[in-house]
Design goal:
single chain; 114 residues; alpha/beta; 5 helices; 5 strands; globular
Amino acid sequence: MVLIEPDVSVRDALNVLLEGEGWQVLCLDDCDELVGVLQDRAVVAVISESSLPDCTPQEILERCSTGGIPVIFTGHDLPLQVAVDLIRQGARDFLDKPFPQSRLLDFLDRLSDQ
């Protein structure tokens, strides 16, 4: 699993949560490395902040779509329409920060059952 989160405290907290649930997590603070990671590793999913300074959510979706890799976006203070648009464009979910940890874990459990 790849986690793209520029906020160090959020990234560390999510990393601890996910690793505690048995997921192998590769943390990135931006998406510059994403293309190489997707080529070099078997990635189960990408969890990404929706407001990154170096790329758009659409670019992340495009990079992940060729491998059929599900993308979950996170964000805060965004209009509901932004989340709806991202899901219509191919994101599997959008989690508004702060989100209940159980919501992310439930989604990942369903993903691992597929």
